[in-house]
Write the structure tokens for this entry.
Amino acid sequence: MIDIRLLRDNPDAVRASQQARGADLSLVDEALAAESRRRSALAEFESLRAEQKALGKQVARATGDDKAALLARTKELAGQVKEHQAAAHAAEAELDELLYRIPNVVDGAPAGGEEDYVTLKTVGTPRDFAAEGFTARDHLDLGEGLGAIDTARGAKVSGSRFYFLTGVGARLELAILNAAMDQAVAEGFTPMITPTLVTPGTMRGTGFLGEHADEIYRLERDDLYLVGTSEVALAGYHGDEILDLSDGPRRYAGWSACYRREAGSHGKDVRGIIRVHQFHKVEMFSYCPVDDAAAEHQRMLAWEEAMLAKVELPYRVIDTAAGDLGTSAARKFDCEAWLPSQERYLELTSTSNCTTFQARRMNVRERSDAGTRTVATLNGTLGTTRWIVAILENHQQPDGSVRVPEGLRPYLGGLEVLEPVR
């Protein structure tokens, strides 16, 4: 959640963030009013409690009518103390609920919605397939020809937006994920195989419930949620702990299956494996001091770009607009690879600086010279199933074969070309 001190001391900054996101401005004033009621009720409670304690000492020394009067006032005070304590608790609960509904305060992201991103740079040049004398095929045609992707049987077994990766398709996904994990380990990340079922508290703490709850699978009988990213489990890993970050950030690389309902995406990217209900991903996650968060964000972006260089994809980096940010993100950079069959860019990675938003909810702090303080959390994608789409399309050859990028060849037994099987 956002810092209550920021809301109290600089409400205009929170209002500006809400406006940039296109979010509900009234939440700011509602939260301020609840905070005022909480402070007023708490002050009255503490004043009455102090009087109650003082009267207790007087009753012990009083006699006769004076003692009877003091006892009557003590009884009256007891009711008032309980009443104001309940009011303070009610106001605090209302404030907490409102704070949970206010997304993270935007930090540097452009204002606007999904189409208002800013392109920071473009790397590489898309191939001119016409000049090469053939028409680019899409990833599903290529994948079926390679015996790598089977969506028909995926739908038969599990329904729409499910698939099988078979033969070189399965090996290609493992190659991508293992290359991503090796890079993360080389950069000092601790590899993690994370749970894919988490408690409501963990899911809520990371900011994925609320307005995004319809995108998440819930197991009602067990009151557990399936994660859409290992970020969720990694954000809860150090919940209610005080970390020592004197030697630098705590960095983890989580490998997990991911599940998304894709609610509201009917008709979008239904062909192939671009937008599916289940996939695998290696996700970077960092706990770091707040004053190092912006620099850590740039480091994560650089690590993502290093992975894209290994698979030799043309891509662009965009600064995501405030209205397209997730609840927890203060700023987000996406790397989008060129998709020849659709002549557009497709998101392959994103890295978000969540500042103290998640850690405050999860109660993760660090020791500093001034005592303890909330840490910052950041996350970023290093490899996922969707990369297969861009790799097949960008490295295809006229006969339906696909050249294997040099960075992946060691993970495919030195294989240089994926050959069609039909």
